[in-house]
């Protein structure tokens, strides 16, 4: 299900993809409060459908999604969302898919426990 938040959102559109509804809620609240339009999706497949009709400036993608994982999703999002505009989030410190992500050029990987201020700073940086 595609949802956008904040009727007053005037900032860039940020795609957030995570199968955890709590993480989606937290990211949506954080980003919409800062003026971003948030396109939230619970799976890689629904995210791909959403970008057919929306053009996000950046994406925050969970590494481990059911079905297609976050790395495959990021590859599929290009060229609509360049890999340099992707923030990969994960609950894992070490995972073989993180090495694959880095080889593909994904420069920004954050732990799910990252402070909100850091998430906002990174989103601002990738949206430049």
CATH C-level class is Alpha Beta
Question: How big is the Rg?
Answer: 13 Å
The overall pLDDT, averaged over residues, is 87
Structural class by helix and strand composition: alpha/beta
How many structural domains? 1
What does this structure look like?
The chain is an alpha/beta fold and 128 residues long. The protein has one domain (3-126): Rossmann fold (3-Layer(aba) Sandwich), CATH 3.40.50. It is 37% helix and 20% strand. The protein has helices spanning 21-33, 44-50, 70-77, 96-103, 116-126, and strands spanning 3-4, 13-17, 37-41, 58-62, 86-90, 108-111. The chain has a six-stranded mixed beta sheet, with helices on both faces. Helix 2 packs parallel to helix 3. It is globular, with a radius of gyration of 13 Å.
SSE topology:
Blueprint (H helix, E strand, L loop, with lengths): L2 E2 L8 E5 L3 H13 L3 E5 L2 H7 L7 E5 L7 H8 L8 E5 L5 H8 L4 E4 L4 H11 L2
Parallel strand pairs: 2-3, 2-4, 4-5, 5-6
Antiparallel strand pairs: 1-3
């Amino acid at each position: 299900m595609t949802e956008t938040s904040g009727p007053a959102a005037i900032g860039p559109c940020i795609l957030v993809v995570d199968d955890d509804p709590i993480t989606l809620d937290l990211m949506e609240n954080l980003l919409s409060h800062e003026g971003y339009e948030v396109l939230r999706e619970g799976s890689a497949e629904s995210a791909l459908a959403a970008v057919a009709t929306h053009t996000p400036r950046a994406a925050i993608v969970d590494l481990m999604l059911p079905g297609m994982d976050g790395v495959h999703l990021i590859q599929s999002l290009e060229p609509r969302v360049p890999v340099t505009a992707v923030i990969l989030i994960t609950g894992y410190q070490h995972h073989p898919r993180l090495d694959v992500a880095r080889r593909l050029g994904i420069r920004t990987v954050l732990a799910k426990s990252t402070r909100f201020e850091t998430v906002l700073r990174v989103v601002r940086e990738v949206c430049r």
